[in-house]
Specification:
This protein has two domains: about 60 residues; about 50 residues, no CATH class. It has a two-stranded antiparallel ribbon. The protein contains three helices and two strands. It is mainly alpha-helical. Bound molecules: zinc ion.
Length: about 130
Amino acid sequence: MKSIKPGRGPLLGSAISSIFAAVFGVIWTCAAIWIGAPFFFPLFGVVFTIAGVVHAVYSLSQATSDQRHSAFDIVDEREEPDPLNVRLGKEAPPPTNSVHSAGFCPYCGAPTKSDYTFCRKCGRQLPQ
Ligand SMILES: [Zn+2]
């Protein structure tokens, strides 16, 4: 399996945008209370503020983390087949054996055979 991770720059930009959204929520809430708007107007600002703060904390932690969550996982159909294709009978159900015996190195993705102990591309020991 390969994964695509979001870049640290876009994550930092997302964190900064979320801070602006949270500040907007605070201004909205204060303005709604000040003009005496019905309760759901200030509540909208509170929800906006909470969502902005949560997203800012998440984005900032991901931007500075060594282990970022993946945005996309790239898997071979033998690792994880498309469930819709399986349901429609266009693809076989997933095998119960390991990634290695499915024919690919779990570290570099190179093709392997079931009798290989080490990957011929990256040299790492393959799980049995
Ligand atoms: Zn390998």
